[in-house]
Write a structure and sequence with these properties.
The protein is an alpha/beta fold. About 30% of the residues lie in helices and about 25% in strands. The chain has eleven helices and 16 strands. It is globular, with a radius of gyration of 20 Å. InterPro entries: ADH-like_C (IPR013149), ADH-like_N (IPR013154), ER (IPR020843), GroES-like_sf (IPR011032), NAD(P)-bd_dom_sf (IPR036291).
Length: about 350
């Protein structure tokens, strides 16, 4: 049996329950993994609420989109992985069939990457969604060169796991990072996790500060992991032929952006989805892995983990996420009691 997180009805974290589920043998092209940790994502809250892009198969809907563990066994046709391998589970599978918040799971082998030696299960579980998304926004969609000295990127949602990952990736390119907050008290925390500059939107003029930070040159790239009221001033601050990448927003609309700066500055606006625009494309996934994996192995990229919850506290973990007080990733530690 495997203790597994599921939900039967739509709602908040209180709808998530832990149940014992029989462990089935992996099917063809699947692997069976003893999970050790899972990363949490805000998308899962929308999924439980019934407001995500995928329809949950309630009742008994599985939960969890990424994680890390050890392979127990492999199904027929799997040749790349073997029993005992330490692996990350990437969020590129059918949510209505698979979930990572369980003691033992079966997932498609194509959704795996090996964990580099010396990297903990918690760091591995917190890595791929955040860093592959940040890489996709900055390097793939944003076309930021690997040597970007003198360039500047604005990252919204800087306290999120994607935001903190983006700061680290921008440092690898030598570009400057700018993020925003409404609260002065968050400035020190955001700088500690890698932001070069922090604008306090309640106290400062965004355009004026971006002009000051770039010495009048303007911003080269704006990445919206959270879209809000700063989209218009950030567009005004973009250089000619600057780029905007839109990844995540909760309002369902893009507020306050007029056509004038798009036209006159010839701004490129792109949407980005980690699976549809990166992981589903073998060549793009390989480039991302080739860029990110050595930096994870060397410690040059290291996930910012705010807090680790046990699997028994899964509802508390998602409730904590709803408070918007964390910086970086929330991780669930899984110590299986059964197989």
């Amino acid at each position: 049996m495997s203790l597994t997180a599921q939900f039967d009805t739509f709602g908040g974290p209180e709808k998530i329950r832990l149940v014992d589920v029989p462990v089935q043998s992996p099917a063809a092209d699947e692997v069976q993994i003893r999970m050790r940790a899972a990363g949490q994502n805000r998308a899962e809250l929308f999924y439980v609420a019934g407001h995500y892009l995928v329809e949950p198969p309630i009742p008994n809907a599985p939960l969890g989109a990424e994680g890390a563990g050890e392979i127990i066994s492999v199904g027929s046709g799997v040749t790349k992985f073997a029993e005992g391998d330490r692996v990350c589970v990437l969020l590129m599978f059918d949510w209505d069939k698979y979930g990572t918040l369980a003691e033992v799971i079966n997932v498609p082998a194509y959704a795996l990457e090996r964990i580099p030696e010396g990297i903990s299960f918690e760091d591995a579980a917190a890595f791929w969604m955040a860093y592959a998304t940040a890489y996709g926004m900055i390097v793939q969609a944003g076309e930021m060169p690997t040597d970007a000295a003198g360039r500047t990127a604005v990252i919204t949602g800087g306290s999120s796991s994607v935001g903190t990952a983006a700061f680290q990736i921008l440092k690898q390119t030598s570009a400057k990072s700018v993020t925003t907050t409404r609260m002065q008290k968050k400035v020190a925390d955001l700088k500690q996790v890698g932001a070069d500059h922090v604008i306090v939107t309640d106290d400062e003029d965004i355009c004026a500060r971006l002009n000051e930070i770039t010495n009048g040159k303007g911003v080269d790239l704006v990445c919206y992991s959270v879209i809000g009221d700063m989209i218009a001033p950030a567009a005004e601050a973009l250089v000619k032929k600057g780029k905007m990448v839109l990844m995540g927003f909760q309002s369902g609309k893009i507020p306050g952006l007029t056509f004038y700066p798009i036209l006159t500055k010839r701004i490129t606006i792109r949407g980005f989805h980690l699976v549809w625009h990166l992981l589903d494309h073998a060549d793009r996934r390989r480039r991302a892995v080739d860029f990110l994996m050595p930096l994870l192995a060397s410690g040059e990229l290291k996930p910012v983990i705010d807090r680790v919850f046990p699997l028994s506290g899964i509802s508390d973990a998602y409730t904590y996420m709803t408070k918007y007080s964390h910086i970086g990733k929330i991780v669930v530690s899984i110590r299986p009691s059964s197989t």
